[in-house]
Amino acid sequence: MGQETWPRAAVPSVAGDVWHWQLEAMHVVSRVRADLRARIAHPSVSSSSTDDARDGLLLVFEELASNALRHGGGDVRALVVASPAGWLLDLSDEAPEKPPVPAVDRDPSLGGMGLHLVAQLSVDYGWERRPGRKHVWARLPSGLQPIEGFSTHVPEPRAPELPTD
C-alpha cells in the first residue's frame, strides 16, 4: 500500500505584507505564534478578516510549524504573506526527500490528523522541493471574501476497522 502525499505544487506568488521567522526548536513555535497573533490582531488586519479565519491561520501555522520541526528539521523557516483575500503560509525545512504524508487509516486518538485539519481550513495547499529545502504551504481565506471551493486532494481520515464478534 503506497503512502498518500500532499499535492506537489509550487508555492504561489502572493502580493502582501511579508512576515518571516526562524524556528530553531519546538519551544520557539509558541513565541512565534504569539507574535503572529499580535500581527493579525492589528486593526488593519483584523478589520479585513474574521475571528474564525484568524484562528484558522494560527492553528494551521502551529500544525505546519510542528510538522516541519518534527519530520523535516534542520533550518526551519516560517513565512506568512498577508493579503486582502487571506494569507499564504509557507513552512520550509531541510528535508526535501520527505514529502508531507497525511495519516490514513489511523485511529485519530493516536494523533497525526494535522494535515487533514490544514486541508479543511485552506483554500489551497501543496508542497514543493527546491535545492536542499522542502516548502509546505497553505493559502487561507480572510473569511470575508467568497471562497471558490476548498481543495480536496487529501484523502479522508478513516478510523481503523474494528473486529466484529
From TrEMBL:
GO molecular function, one term: protein serine/threonine kinase activity
Span of domain Histidine kinase/HSP90-like ATPase: 48-139
UniProt cross-references to Pfam families, sorted A to Z: HATPase_c_2
UniProt KW Transferase keyword: yes
Alphabetical keyword list: Kinase, Serine/threonine-protein kinase, Transferase
UniProt keyword annotation of Transferase present: yes
Top-level division of the source organism's lineage: Bacteria
Protein name per the record: Anti-sigma regulatory factor (Ser/Thr protein kinase)
Organism: Geodermatophilus telluris
